[in-house]
Amino acid sequence: MTETRPPNRGIRSTGASTPQVRPATEGWTQKKDADGKPLLQFASPKRGKPPVHLADLSPEDRVAKVKDLGLPGFRAGQLEKHYFTHYTSDASKMSDLPADNREELVHGMLPPLLTEVKRLETDRGDTIKFLWKLHDGALVESVLMRYPGRITLCVSSQAGCGMNCPFCATGQAGLTRNMSAAEIVEQIVRANRLIADGGLGGKKSTDHSLDRVSNIVFMGMGEPLANYARVMQAIRVMTDKKHGLGMSARGITVSTVGLVPAINKLAAEEIPVTFALSLHAPDDTLRDELIPVNSKWKVDEALDAARAYFDKTGRRVSIEYALIKDMNDHAWRADLLAKKLNDRGRGWVHVNPIPLNPTPGSIWTASEVPVQNEFVRRLNEAGIPTTLRDTRGKEIDGACGQLVATEDDQADAEATPVSV
Ligand code: SF4
């Protein structure tokens, strides 16, 4: 497919008055492979595995493990209820389990996984960012947000990330390791516990339904499709009505920078989650620099896979597009994006532009408001439903691409003993 206008190199005028800023890392050095391209890390570095938890296992394997611990299989169901309904791993609250081996059973099935290092609140208490320490000292974050009619948790799926996107705080540190399914699920259980205890502000007196997380977005640390098997196990647990959290698959958004074979695999699963493609540029010239994985799977391949996801599941796909001043926010890019989406049919996709968090003095800063509006207008006019997304959480660096442990976080984490 041809581009409507060739992108320029360097910071200079395109001739129509809009400058073109090229992506570059600021204040850090991007790791490169032997060919000088940004390094992509798909395999998780070898580290000690987290303890196996009930949420890592299928319902049958939970029963088998309880039996291995010397108890009848039905105890697995009781543990599931404590964990997924009452959000507790505290043996002292499980008086329905036999007192003599209760501690051993609970420790064997529900070992501690996340130690809270700190939490930051903003938006009058209805946005909370958690910093968690894993069993091996790796740090991850999640962000809990109350909106009218829903409570969303942005979860991490990897400690760090191997996709090396130059604008992303998480990517700078590289991939520490894949998280286990239970480490992913535990973020939700802990958030539900906090909500049940009244710890999330902003509840309106008319809002009776919301007493737990209703929506999940995989937009925290990590590329979820690079940790496919564990993310899928976590989603199975989230959606299982009998043996898990019983959430709606439609409320779960899996977001990817475009790992095409994994998108195809996801489409073949029988779980109709919402699928989001973080595109950020409609032309390969810019996207190769902005999203290094584009060197493996190009814009058109990623869009074809997104369209195939719609065909297979009937679920409308989201295109995420961070609007970055003078880098990817040009009117011709809005037109090109609209063309590429319309070339693949109507009614299968919507676009969510999100202004990048403002960083004065950096090349990585938010588009001007009139530019944002023009970008959105052009897409809508071309028949692509487009809505500018909320940047909730930006005051606490909790918006997408912002989740990374700082030096202060590291120091706080070192002072926090890991739960055992
Ligand atoms: S933007 Fe997403 S995929 Fe890219 S480095 Fe950051 S966390 Fe990884």
UniProtKB/TrEMBL annotation:
S-adenosyl-L-methionine binds at G222, E223, S255, S278, L279, H280, N357. Its cofactor is [4Fe-4S] cluster. SUPFAM superfamilies: Radical SAM enzymes. Keywords: 4Fe-4S, Cytoplasm, Disulfide bond, Iron, Iron-sulfur, Metal-binding, Methyltransferase, rRNA processing, S-adenosyl-L-methionine, Transferase, tRNA processing. GO terms for molecular function: methyltransferase activity. [4Fe-4S] cluster binds at C161, C165, C168. It is found in: Cytoplasm. GO terms for biological process: methylation. Residues 1-55 are annotated as: Disordered. Pfam families: Radical_SAM. The keyword Oxidoreductase does not apply. It comes from the Bacteria. Residues 147-395 form the Radical SAM core domain. The active site is at E141 (proton acceptor), C400 (s-methylcysteine intermediate). It catalyses: adenosine(37) in tRNA + 2 reduced [2Fe-2S]-[ferredoxin] + 2 S-adenosyl-L-methionine = 2-methyladenosine(37) in tRNA + 5'-deoxyadenosine + L-methionine + 2 oxidized [2Fe-2S]-[ferredoxin] + S-adenosyl-L-homocysteine; adenosine(2503) in 23S rRNA + 2 reduced [2Fe-2S]-[ferredoxin] + 2 S-adenosyl-L-methionine = 2-methyladenosine(2503) in 23S rRNA + 5'-deoxyadenosine + L-methionine + 2 oxidized [2Fe-2S]-[ferredoxin] + S-adenosyl-L-homocysteine. Belongs to the radical SAM superfamily. RlmN family. This is Probable dual-specificity RNA methyltransferase RlmN. It comes from Microbacterium marmarense. The gene is rlmN.
